[in-house]
Design brief:
single chain; alpha+beta; 18-stranded mixed beta sheet; three-stranded mixed beta sheet; globular; disordered N terminus
Length: 364
């Protein structure tokens, strides 16, 4: 039995042994320990397996906790309900480049958005506008009992992007291979969302309702500001970069810091937060305008970004490690057009090796 499976089995045994008297504190401790162990095991495998294993384990754990905790245990008072919901409804980004952006409404309605921009706009009255056209949105009151939280999701496949405006006026740009879970209606005293992947946010200011972005490794708390969050599942490093205003970042395992504009902070996938540092935030948010900006970036780093955005694995020939790139890489079109741009500037050729693998060869 693998260590990953053993971690899940241990949690199942723990939950079964304590039902129906399991407490919210035990839920929190068991969840944090199991996710930490699952991610630790998954990181030792290949990168593609890492994402599948970590997400799969989290989905099993999330479903287990949701289904086996009896009513009256105080689950909704733990402050982790949006995380548990996200974990029991994992997203798939395997549909391929050019697939539709998905809007999953709290009532079960699924909307596919094929336009290049995929603009999704909610307003305070409950109206929904997609690509400037009004659509009928299901009534929140009909979606679930009044005491249960209800959530929407936006899932952005590889090769696509989306812009989401929430009912409070907050705007969010979602990068490829990302998803966000957000309430059908924000609470009267707080605003919480859950993010996987990468997003740039312009949070509407509301001091009476702090805005929190939750990821698997960090909680980012703001009242009104602009910042970028990089938190792809399976990646060893997650990051918050601040453009304007101020944010408080807390690692899910350890560490807390207050960021000022022009600074960034990184976390391990397990939630250990580092220290704030100066950062080039302009390059970090350039993807919002379909541009990647590089300053003496190793070629491998460029392909790492393209892997995340297009779901492809790049295998480089030996001897290409010394190549660095400086400049802008426009990304308005397909992956093929981007590779052509790279080949125009760098002495390399590309070979589609089957499946999701692209080999990078030195041009001799």
């Amino acid at each position: 039995m693998s260590k990953l499976h053993k971690a899940i089995r241990d949690l199942i045994a723990h939950t079964s042994a304590h039902e129906p008297t399991v407490t919210s504190e035990e839920i929190t401790e068991g969840w944090a320990d199991t996710v930490s162990r699952a991610l630790s095991v998954a990181r030792r495998n290949r990168r593609r397996y890492t994402a599948a294993a970590a997400i799969g384990a989290a989905a099993v754990v999330g479903a287990l906790l949701w289904l086996t905790i009896p009513s009256g245990t105080g689950l909704l008072s733990t402050g982790r309900e949006i995380e548990l919901y996200a974990l029991r409804t994992p997203a798939s980004f395997t549909d391929g480049e050019g697939s539709s952006v998905k809007l999953l409404m709290a009532g079960g309605t699924e909307m596919l958005i094929d336009s290049p921009e995929a603009l999704i706009d909610h307003d305070a009255s409950g109206s929904l506008v997609i690509d400037h056209d009004s659509v009928a949105a299901p009534a929140v009151a009909e979606q679930a009992p009044s005491d249960a939280p209800v959530y929407n999701q936006v899932i952005v496949p590889y090769g696509r992007r989306s812009r989401l405006t929430m009912a409070d006026g907050t705007r969010m740009w979602l990068n490829s291979g990302s998803r966000v879970v957000y309430p059908a209606a924000f609470a009267s005293d707080s605003r919480e969302i859950y993010l996987e992947g990468e997003a740039y946010l312009e949070v509407a200011r509301d001091t009476s309702r702090p805005f929190t972005v939750k990821t698997s490794s960090m909680n980012i708390r703001v009242t009104g500001t602009r910042f970028n969050v990089f938190a792809y599942p399976g990646e060893a490093r997650h990051e918050v970069a601040l453009v304007q205003g101020g944010v408080t970042v807390r690692g899910s395992s350890a560490g807390e810091c207050r960021l000022t504009p022009g600074h960034a902070v990184s976390s391990t996938a397990g939630g250990d937060l580092g220290s704030a540092r100066r950062a080039d935030v302009t390059s970090r948010i350039s993807w919002v305008t379909n541009t990647l900006i590089y300053d003496d970036e190793p070629l491998q780093g460029v392909f790492e970004r393209l892997r995340l955005y297009y779901g492809k694995q790049f295998v480089m020939d030996a001897g290409l490690d010394h190549i660095h790139i400086t400049g802008k890489l426009d990304m308005p079109g397909s992956l093929e057009s981007i590779l052509e741009s790279i080949a125009f500037s760098v002495p390399v050729t590309f070979e589609h090796a089957g499946g999701d693998t692209i080999r990078v060869h030195s041009l001799k």
